[in-house]
Design brief:
alpha+beta, 3 helices, 4 strands
Length: about 100
Amino acid sequence: MERLSGYEDFDLGQLVNFIVMGRGDTVIELEAALGFSVMTNRSNGCRYGDADFLPSWEVIEVHRYWYEVVYVLGDDGFGIVIFVPKDTDPELIEMLQQYAPE
């Protein structure tokens, strides 16, 4: 909590946004909500499937029924946390499985 004390004048929405995908949601719907492609590296433009592709997220964690993916988007630390159920868009799940720690 001490680490967060410098942010007491901020609303939670100014620090982080949360996106919870539902079963059957697509990567296209996720990307529309985010405003960027999770399947493309934000720095070099490589797309998932390209030989040089590396995902742009900061952290990915595997849970029993979902993935938790964190993007830090600003120098001020603003970020987005995405909860992705394991039974959603197959291409997205394939990418998350490939790059998630075991």
